[in-house]
């Protein structure tokens, strides 16, 4: 049934397109661009589309051995078009290159294997190929790979004179002809399916080997490490955020602040029992490396200023409440009185620095209570360090996507597209259930709705 158009309007055309995932479209009147009303991410039809996409990739495992056998044979074909096609499939399969000139409805045009030009490829004998071009989202793809000797020989032939800059490497191949060839192996198989298959296959292999233990943050880091490996193998990079360095510095200061808290508690323990220094050793009570007297002074000043700011904000909020209730505001004198608490904290820190001694604080302080506080701080520090390492390692990787043949991939490795696009979401669900990590740690509310079919359909023993 065709829905009614908005009042006072009529549909320009009613289309029946089994392949389309948009519901309506129009041409805006400024730039003449076409706009689409798309299906919601959590719609049943969209869920079926995602399911079919990943099932299509799973189906490829039945044919991948035959495909690899055939393209390795055709690398030496006397028919140049076949040789070019075989070389392209090799690069797409082994190094997760995009086919190029292949785009989804929500993607920009991409430069890839089939659209490589003379200047995009540099050959270094005996077997190294350097790729340098602007790939998806205009991100520079600059990588070098060791390739099969026949592939190197073929690329050398494809670049042979009279070819020059601007000429295509694969001048007898198009993405459409490549996909038509691949569909002979399996209905609906395109070059794009290789990325989904390889991403999910590698992630599946990593999960089988994984023995994730420890805290929830440590397990999340293990998952992200695997995810990052897949992303790197699939050449999924992003530009490092401009504020990354500042964020890491801020996180480092927060970790130092926790270490300083531990230092203060240990000094309080010494205040209660000086013999502990001999028992536990002098190093136990020393400041952590990277924390010196200058840092301590700056941190203490910041703590005092933070307390002052909290007092001011509380004073303003209390005054707003009084006015709202029809009462008189408190006078500035009251604020001065409240701020004395911050002044006392500043005096205490100054006295500690002068005497080089920190006295035990709190209600009925005891060694046991302090040790319990240290234990909690240790957990917080471990969690923050894990998060910091994870963030630093992932700074230039768009988490997760695809690739292959583990030994080969590991060699590439030695040398957050997003995971939901290429890695089968059921693998994330498997990790979540296998290692008892809440699925909320991996999928946002939107993704949980989008992948509800995956969350409900598998247990920890499911395999890709």
TrEMBL record:
Enzyme class of the recorded protein, top EC level: isomerase
GO molecular function: DNA binding; DNA topoisomerase type I (single strand cut, ATP-independent) activity
GO biological process: chromosome segregation; DNA replication; DNA topological change
Active site: 422
Sorted UniProt keywords: Coiled coil, DNA-binding, Isomerase, Topoisomerase
InterPro entries assigned to the protein according to its UniProt record, in alphabetical order: DNA_brk_join_enz, DNA_topo_DNA_db_N_dom2, TopoI, TopoI_C_dom, TopoI_cat_a-hlx-sub_euk, TopoI_cat_a/b-sub_euk, TopoI_cat_euk, TopoI_DNA-bd_euk
Coiled-coil ranges (or none): 339-387
One GO CC term on file: chromosome
Keyword Transport: no
Pfam families the UniProt entry points to: Topo_C_assoc, Topoisom_I, Topoisom_I_N
EC number, as in UniProt: 5.6.2.1
Similarity section: Belongs to the type IB topoisomerase family.
Protein role: Releases the supercoiling and torsional tension of DNA introduced during the DNA replication and transcription by transiently cleaving and rejoining one strand of the DNA duplex. Introduces a single-strand break via transesterification at the specific target site 5'-[CT]CCTTp site in duplex DNA. The scissile phosphodiester is attacked by the catalytic tyrosine of the enzyme, resulting in the formation of a DNA-(3'-phosphotyrosyl)-enzyme intermediate and the expulsion of a 5'-OH DNA strand. The free DNA strand then undergoes passage around the unbroken strand thus removing DNA supercoils.
PANTHER family in alphabetical order: DNA TOPOISOMERASE 1, DNA TOPOISOMERASE I
Protein name in UniProt: DNA topoisomerase I
Organism encoding this protein: Hortaea werneckii (Black yeast)
């Amino acid at each position: 049934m065709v829905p009614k158009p908005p009042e006072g309007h009529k549909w320009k055309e009613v289309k029946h397109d089994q392949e389309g995932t948009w519901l309506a479209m129009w041409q805006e009147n400024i730039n003449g661009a076409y706009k689409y009303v798309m299906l919601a991410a959590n719609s049943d039809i969209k869920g079926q589309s995602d399911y079919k996409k990943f099932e299509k990739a799973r189906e490829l495992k039945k044919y991948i051995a035959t495909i690899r056998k055939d393209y390795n044979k055709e690398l030496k074909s006397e028919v140049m078009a076949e040789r070019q096609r075989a070389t392209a499939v090799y690069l797409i399969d082994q190094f997760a290159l995009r086919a190029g000139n292949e785009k989804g409805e929500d993607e920009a045009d991409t430069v890839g294997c089939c659209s490589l030009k003379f200047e995009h490829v540099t050959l270094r004998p005996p077997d190294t190929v350097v790729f340098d071009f602007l790939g998806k989202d205009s991100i520079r793809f600059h990588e070098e790979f060791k390739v099969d000797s026949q592939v190197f020989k073929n690329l050398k032939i494809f670049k042979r004179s009279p070819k020059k800059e601007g000429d295509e490497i694969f001048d007898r191949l198009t993405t459409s002809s490549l996909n038509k060839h691949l569909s002979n192996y399996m209905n609906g198989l395109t070059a794009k399916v290789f990325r989904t298959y390889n991403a999910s296959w590698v992630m599946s292999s990593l999960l089988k080997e994984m023995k994730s233990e420890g805290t929830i943050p440590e397990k999340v880091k293990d998952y992200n490490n695997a995810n990052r490996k897949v992303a790197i193998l699939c050449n999924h990079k992003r530009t490092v955020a401009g504020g990354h360095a500042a964020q890491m510095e801020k996180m480092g200061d927060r970790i130092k602040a926790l270490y300083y808290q531990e230092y203060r508690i240990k000094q309080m323990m010494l205040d209660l029992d000086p013999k502990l220094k001999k028992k536990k050793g002098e190093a136990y009570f020393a400041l952590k490396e990277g924390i010196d007297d200058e840092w301590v002074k700056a941190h203490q000043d910041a703590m005092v200023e933070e307390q002052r700011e909290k007092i001011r904000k509380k004073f303003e909020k209390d005054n707003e409440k009084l006015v709202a209730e029809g009462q008189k505001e408190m006078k500035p004198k009251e604020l001065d009185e409240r701020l004395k608490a911050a002044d006392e904290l500043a005096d205490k820190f100054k006295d500690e620095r002068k005497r080089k001694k920190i006295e035990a604080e709190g209600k009925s302080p005891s060694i046991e209570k302090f040790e319990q506080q240290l234990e909690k701080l240790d957990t917080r520090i471990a969690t923050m360090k894990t998060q910091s390492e994870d963030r630093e390692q992932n700074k230039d990787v768009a988490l997760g996507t695809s690739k292959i043949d583990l030994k080969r991939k590991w060699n590439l490795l030695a040398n957050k597209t997003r995971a939901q696009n290429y890695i089968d979401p059921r693998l994330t669900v498997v990790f979540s259930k296998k290692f008892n990590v809440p699925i909320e740690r991996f999928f946002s509310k939107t993704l949980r709705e989008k992948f509800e079919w995956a969350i409900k359909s598998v247990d920890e023993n499911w395999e890709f």
